[in-house]
Design a protein that fits this description.
Layout lengths: L1 E2 L13 E6 L3 E6 L8 E5 L3 E4 L44 H7 L6 H13 L3 H4 L2 H19 L1 H9 L9 H14 L11 H14 E5 L10 E6 L7 E2 L5 E4 L14 E5 L10 E2 L8 H12 L6 H6 L8 H11 L7 H10 L12 H7 L10 E3 L10 E4 L5 E3 L3
Parallel strand pairs: 8-11
Antiparallel strand pairs: 1-2, 2-3, 4-10, 5-7, 6-7, 9-10, 12-13, 13-14
Helix pairs in contact: 2-4, 4-5, 4-6, 4-7, 6-7, 10-12
Length: about 400
């Protein structure tokens, strides 16, 4: 059993998580000490970040869409009257300080030169017609740049598991050819081969996390950027997670940690138990969850919730709604016997007779329209657990009773 800090010692959290091998799951994160409800169990900084926007020519009608976020930290800069920008490639930044930091990291001279060349070839039909290829080309630029500026971090990136089926062979060949046409590889130490490009694409396929736009009640959330995080990548999925992710991408300009991946426990987690996230909103139906997990991550989920819902008609929500309504009208949300069973399991709200997730929906699902977020207690203060619940999507803070 390895402490999770061994993945990236420079930003390790408290010694409360470990990485172990679990049969059928591979590397997994477990609690190596009891975790309290609301506790921040992991704060992780990205190995690399890249834009979720296609690359349009500088003179094109959509060029402005590439310059409403800082090219380094991806804060919104749409309200800034005249944000500093790169004179060579027009990349914009939230501040001169962020631009200076980017000059030796995310916006190195090699990246700047490559972005200019990518812009010039983005009118090619094979590039322009594929949003996915344009975004993946940004990822590959960021990955090869990482190899040049931080070989040790690049080795960590290569150590992450990948899913070869997440990218087509045609896309891999095309993207490798595109990368080779931009400019020479910035890191001769690692070479520049089709095999390495395919490996990097496979890693991105199952390790990339989206940095999302703020919640809007009348719009679907979109992704403004993607990041790969060295330790967060070890979290496995569960359709009834016991932890969830928070990010604060538009945080104060003075903060250099706005892209950190912050994980908080939903409830008390006992030592030795696996800590899991949901890779998407927990209110998705069974068929949609299974489809996305198979297509994007290459596995079939057999969690308690999925084993129950596999026998449901996917268009029939009556069982779910009736059970959730019964739970919400039961004061504490469950019987005394049920509460005792939860406490013994150390996984409050995960097992309720034949319906393992009714209590979860009542306690941890945000009720705000069009949100679909997960509620986690605010971090506990000293010995007292917080009674305030924060939504990881809309940011709404409420009491447990409301």
């Amino acid at each position: 059993m390895a402490g999770i800090d061994t993945v990236s010692p420079s930003s390790s959290p408290a010694q409360k998580l470990s990485v172990i091998e679990i049969e059928g799951k591979g590397r997994s994160i477990v609690a190596s000490a009891p975790l309290r409800a609301g506790e921040i169990v992991l704060r992780d900084s990205p190995l690399l970040l890249y834009s979720a926007f296609p690359f349009f020519p500088a003179s094109g009608p959509h060029h402005r869409s590439n310059n409403i976020y800082c090219s380094n930290c991806f804060r919104s800069i749409a309200s800034l009257p005249l944000p500093p920008s790169c004179p060579a490639c027009s990349a914009a930044f939230c501040s001169s300080g962020c631009q200076s930091v980017a000059g030796s990291s995310s916006h190195s001279p090699w990246i700047c030169q490559s972005l200019r060349r990518l812009r010039d070839c983005s009118s090619s039909p094979l590039v322009a017609q594929s949003h996915e290829r344009q975004v993946l080309s940004r990822y590959l630029l960021a990955a090869y740049n990482l190899a040049a500026i931080s070989p040790s971090d690049f080795r960590i990136l290569l150590s992450l598991q990948g899913n070869p089926s997440s990218i087509s062979a045609d896309d891999a060949r095309f993207l490798h050819s595109l990368m080779s046409s931009l400019c020479p590889s910035p890191a001769p130490e690692f070479g520049f081969s089709m095999e390495l490009t395919a490996t990097l694409l496979a890693i991105d396929g199952i390790n990339g996390f989206g940095l999302m736009e703020p919640f809007h009640p009348e719009k679907d959330r979109s992704v403004r950027a993607y990041g790969i995080y060295p330790r967060a990548s070890f979290f496995n999925h569960n359709c009834l997670p016991n932890a969830c992710r928070f990010d604060y991408i538009d945080a104060d300009l003075n903060s250099r940690t706005n892209t950190d991946f912050i994980v908080r426990a939903l409830h008390d987690i006992t030592e030795g138990r696996e800590v899991c996230l949901s890779y998407f909103p927990v209110n998705l139906k069974y068929s949609e969850r299974q489809r996305r997990l198979k297509e994007d991550y290459g596995f079939v989920c057999n969690c308690d919730r999925c084993n129950v819902e596999a026998n449901w008609d996917d268009d029939d929500d009556e069982g779910e709604e009736a059970e959730a309504e019964k739970m919400s009208g039961n004061g504490s949300g469950m019987s005394e016997d049920g509460e005792e069973a939860m406490e013994e399991e150390g996984m409050e709200g995960e097992v309720v007779g034949d319906f393992p997730h009714a209590f979860f929906f009542v306690r941890f699902m945000c009720s705000r329209d069009n949100c679909g977020g997960t509620l986690a207690p605010l971090p506990p203060s000293h010995a007292s657990p917080s009674t305030l619940m924060e939504c990881n999507v809309c940011g709404n803070v409420s009491t447990e009773e409301s």
